[in-house]
Design goal:
Blueprint (H helix, E strand, L loop, with lengths): L2 H11 L4 E7 L5 H13 L4 E5 L10 H12 L4 H14 L5 E5 L1 H7 L1 H11 L3 E4 L8 H9 L3 E2 L1 E3 L5 H10 L4 E4 L12 H12 L6 E4 L5 H8 L4 E4 L1 H9 L4 H25 L1
Length: 272
């Protein structure tokens, strides 16, 4: 059983929901990324998601766009990010790590070369935002050869036919986008999120996690009650933005937020 499947199986056995935390690799530095990965796990994160800096992150709101820009100013590249994952894996053998990004950096490195390198350092999954499901078979096959999960997005506007197509190709878990728009945008509609998760579960037994717009413990508790987990990104990146230049404060702010969300989710589980 791979790390992602093992983690979700463990969480289910404990009646817990997954907390997936997102930061942009290299924001504000790769050294800080190294530290934050371990600190977020210690604060209650079950899976880690690293954003790959890109010049045109079309799915991202202004907070994460700015983080991409800062990382690019640091000249952070995909090779360095994989090295960061490798260093993390030397100390943490169990926590799944997923890369979230866009096709261009992977294509530039070469799909096969990237897959081999990702497998070698202990990466667990990849979510490529801008490759449509109609064109992703080749990439899923390449990833499968080295044991990488292909994490796919399901949008609020996806028809049942499209959800079926997406779920037939995904593995690891399914990422249900909570709202139309970009990360960190708008206020969530609980009933819409609930209905979308129900729709996805008609077609797949994979865990369904919800992301986009989850900013605090209250929201996370609510959404976790109808899903297998939540993804928190913009709120964490915003903590870093508010503390740029003060590493200790940045770490404290992030870990306090992650801990609060972890408690909120766990309290919600007991309410079910």
């Amino acid at each position: 059983m791979d790390r992602i499947a093992k983690q979700f199986s463990y969480l289910e056995s404990k009646n817990r929901k997954a907390l997936i935390t997102y930061i942009v690799a290299g924001d504000p530095s790769l050294d800080m990324t190294d530290i934050l990965m371990h600190e977020m796990v210690a604060s209650g994160a079950d899976l880690l998601e690293l954003g790959v800096p890109f010049s045109d992150p079309m799915a991202e709101g202004p907070i994460i766009q700015a983080a991409h820009e800062r990382a690019l100013l640091n000249s952070v590249n995909l090779t360095q990010i994989l090295e960061t994952v490798g260093r993390f894996r030397e100390e943490d053998k169990d926590t799944p790590v997923v890369l979230m990004g866009y096709a261009n950096p992977i294509e530039k490195m070469g799909y096969e070369k990237f897959a081999r390198a990702a497998g070698d350092v202990g990466l667990d999954g990849v979510l490529t935002v801008d490759i449509p499901v109609e064109e992703i078979d080749f990439l899923c096959n390449i990833f499968a050869e080295v044991g990488l999960d292909s994490i796919l997005l399901v949008a609020p506007t996806s028809s049942e036919e499209r959800i079926l197509r997406i779920t037939s190709k995904a593995n690891g878990f399914l990422y249900s986008v909570a709202l139309t728009g970009v990360t960190g945008d708008k206020t969530l509609d609980f009933n819409q999120v609930k209905n979308q998760v129900i729709s996805i579960r008609q077609f797949s037994d994979l865990p369904v996690v919800v992301g986009f717009g989850i900013k605090d413990a209250k929201t996370a508790k609510s959404i976790a009650s109808v899903s297998d987990g939540v993804v928190v990104g913009s709120a964490i990146v915003d903590c870093l933005t508010q503390s740029l230049g003060t590493s200790s404060m940045a770490i404290k702010n992030v870990t306090n937020l992650v801990s609060a969300i972890r408690v909120g989710i766990d309290l919600g589980a007991y309410d079910l």
